[in-house]
Amino acid sequence: MLCGKTVGLRAIESHDLPQLLAWRNDPRLRRYFREYRELNLAQQRQWFETRVNNDPTTRMFAIVERGRGGGGGGHTAGRLLGACGLCYIDWVNRTADFSLYIGADDLYIDERFAPDAAVAMIDYGFDELGLHRLWSEIYSFDAPKQRLFTALGFALDGRHRQTHWAEGAWHDSLYYSLLSTDRRPRLPAPPALPEGKAPGNAEAK
Fold first, then answer.
1. Nearest 5°: phi and psi at 36?
2. Model's pTM, two decimal places?
3. d(CA 177, CA 135)
4. pLDDT (tens digit, 9 = 90+) per residue, 35-79?
5. What are the structural domain ranges in the chain?
6. How far apart are the C-alpha atoms of 171 and 31, rounded to whole Å?
7. What is the DSSP string of 46-103?
8. What's the CATH number for 2-134?
9. Residue 147: enclosing H or E segment and its boundaries?
10. How far apart are CA 37 and CA 46, in angstroms?
């Protein structure tokens, strides 16, 4: 498991699929995704078998909350929070599409889990896989991702006008990237949890 300060990135397991499917089909989250169709469990399982388990150009992870536990003061994986990954990996030019969302508690992109998962995945892409460029396409109405990428030091490379029809209007595509030679993002201490909440004790919606 790849470990951040508040989250861990572990392999996606078959028992994660129903929850990932529910988040994937939630209109409040789906509006940000490229895949606009309602998916069924068979399609989710096909994605799991073909892309997650057998595609050498894809590295997908389940984002889980880290909780104290285990012998020796170690950490254990708590509830499932979302998913992230590096897709369309070009092993010659060492580039990959950067994907991330937090489905738990309808967060999508928050200030605690999403940046921590992003930094863990950036370190994995650059340090473990030897990639040089991480990029992402998002839509112009996706303000949470714009704030996240700006905070992480991604550069806005360009804008493709009116590429996406949604909610009765055309929207632009924004392209962000981070290079291995750019300043590596480092996070401050994560925001404190709400009073009375311990890591891993909440149920995902």
1. -95, -10
2. 0.86
3. 4
4. 878 999 999 999 999 999 999 999 999 999 987 443 334 455 689
5. 2-134
6. 12
7. HHIIIIITT-TT-EEEEEEEEEE-SGGG-EEEEEEEEEEEEEEEETTTTEEEEEEEE-
8. 3.40.630.30
9. helix 143-152
10. 15
